Amino acid sequence: MLHDVRTIDWAGWAEAAQRTRDRAIEEGIEFLQSVTAVEDADAGDSMVVSMLGHKGDLMIVHMRPTLADIDELERRFERTPLASFTERDRSFVSVTEASGYSERGREFIEGDLDDDSGLARYMRSRLYPEIPEKEHVCFYPMDKRRDPEYNWYDLPFEERAEHMDAHGDIGREYAGRVTQMITGAIGMDDWEWGVTLYADDMTDVKDLLYEMRFDPSSSKFAEFGPFWIGRRFDPADLDALLAGELLSTPWEDAAGDHSGHGRPPATPEDAAEGHGENGHPHEDSEHSHGDDESDDHPDGDETDEHPSTGGGRPATTDSWSEAIAEIDDVTARLATAGLHEGEDYTGEAYALVFETDRDAADLADEVEGLASNFDHYDTHVTTAVRASGGHTYLVSLWATEDAAQTASGFLTDLDGIDTGARGWAGEPRGETGDGASGPAGTDEDTDIRSQLANQGIYAGQPHGEDVYALVVYSEADLDRLRSAVEDLRASFDGDDHVKTAVYDDPDDEVAAVVSLWADEAAAQHASGDLESVPGVVRKAGEGEGFGTMGMFYTVKPDYREAFVETFGTVGEQLATMDGHRETALLVNDDDENDMFIASRWDDREDAMAFFRSDDFRETVQWGREILADTPRHVFLA
Fold first, then answer.
1. Which strand ranges, in their side-by-side order, compose the sheet holding 391-398?
2. pLDDT per residue over 572-613, tens digit each?
3. Is 374 helix (H, G, I), strand (E, B) or coil?
4. Element of type H or E holding 181
5. Which CATH number is associated with domain 97-251?
6. Nearest CA among 408, 441, 442 for reference residue 422
7. Which residue of the set 101, 122, 128, 140 is catalytic?
8. Where is the composition biased (Basic and acidic residues) (predicted)?
9. What is the CATH number of domain 463-634?
10. Which of 30, 439, 458, 623 counts the most CB atoms within 10 A of its CB?
């Protein structure tokens, strides 16, 4: 790889004859277009950049299979009339490299993988990246420190690998916004590595690098060279560059469909036929590159193939498997699995959720390499294994439905990953740019689910179906209520019945009898029996205002007292909120660690304002540490 930065002799350009300038522009465009429009996928990739600031005016970047190819391109440019008006300001020569930090990466490097395996093809594809369609470019060289106190090369391999893994966690937060390409230059240039970052918004690069400065792999073990930044432009705009006019990007006016941009191969076998499309997200980002073993994501975005690596674009899954059902409220399903909007992912994403009987730790080890490879694509948000509520979940989020669809082929190849759910996570989504549509989700229940799911609360559909509640409040003594509930449980025997229990309010003489049902019709059918319990004074949902009965919590025994104390604090805050009428904490008479919170508000929007508040978010976040299961909101039948 060659980064070639040129300064332009503006005085000489202004003094040159028009015919000379016309010839320089014509042959300059011809050269730049020829190197950036390589038809043979094995031949490489190039780009031209208008530089900003004092470190040059023009940067030409080449990636080719051999140094001989780079050498020929350098000399070809020097023979153009345009070159006589430029002077090389600086350059950087380097090579893409695969990582040896991950176990699977080492297997590839050591030749222990089947050459035809999907992982081997993935690793080769990462050795031959393509330049992504992103407008801005930032390049900088870097070294790993060899100071007496902080010597990277004296660290044990395992410790370096841990640093790289933590470093990569930061970079993955910028997936889709910043794409990196890391190249090694030991023995080839004055610095050990070169980092090329691509972004549509340069402030994303700034934010990323600032955040990474606090990571030990940077703060203790990294030295950085000068930063060069610029904006990519279409070679046909060379005359505009020299005239000081506005430049267009190479893809700005390009014909053709870019809908496949960022799409991963559909199956490992497809990787044999080609490579991923432009741009994988910024994995370990910035300088996740370590020493010669680099980090787990070598160089770059996707693949600029090389002879023997295959060629062409990957095939994609033609349609969704029937085993992956589309659901309207996948955000709630993600919350069930332990992923929460604003914390684990941001904004809209197309989600895949699989529930499996496999051990979570074993599955996580198997998914690690696959997720790392997914990180090569700008459309990948996250892929993770979570254990929640005694279940194991595999989740994968993508920026587009097409990308999620092709990724599903990889995921369902894993043992035990058979059936799943899919859909748009986040706020209800209308028609998408690629013609796919998300859930309508405009009714009141769906809107409540969306608000609560953002906070990590089951908003219905905890196991694929809604759960409906019947609740009556009674002033009868607890012994009478217990007897009545025992009789109800016997009569409610059936698949649709979830549970029926007495919940006592220690601060009130009125207790609640709660009956939960998986089917709304069955719940309504049982409502008459529930109203027959002694001492009923009212049903939940009756009266004025908006009731949010149904916030169920199962607390770890050691934290029960802390939970009750915290509820008291939250209750004091609720009393000061506009529209709040009353809130009570009720405890299951059979299990003191099973509680629910019943609230009443002037109207629905007042309640929603609380669900969206920082206080509620902080309480839920704290609750994740002390609850035995995810909190759940059920709907009154």
1. 324-326, 420-425, 349-356, 391-398, 380-388
2. 777 888 888 888 888 999 899 888 888 777 877 777 777 777
3. helix
4. strand 178-184
5. 3.30.70.1030
6. 408
7. 140
8. 272-291
9. 3.30.70.100
10. 458
